[in-house]
Amino acid sequence: MSIQELESEVKRLSPSELAVFSEWFERFTTGSVQESEHSAWSDLSAEGLARAYSESEPEYRSADVKRQ
After folding, report:
1. How far apart are CA 23 and CA 61, in angstroms?
2. I need a labelling partner for 34 at 20 to 30 A (CA). Which of 20, 24, 56, 67 fits?
3. How far apart are CA 30 and CA 7, in angstroms?
4. Environment class of residue 3 by beta-carbon count within 10 Å: exposed (0-12), middle (13-18) or buried (19+)?
5. pLDDT tens-digit profile of 29-54?
């Protein structure tokens, strides 16, 4: 469906149908943005961990940890 077809269909909605559609569309777009942002932060975190702990990183034992 093209944008023009979608626009035409939305214009045919009754006021009550338009209200329901508008509420749904707001939830849909907000959810898409939040999901996208969450995914971006998750990817960034994974990349940071991968850089910080490479294959050459030594294994540390609990005895190697110093308490202050």
Report:
1. 54
2. 20
3. 20
4. exposed
5. 877 667 777 777 777 777 777 777 77
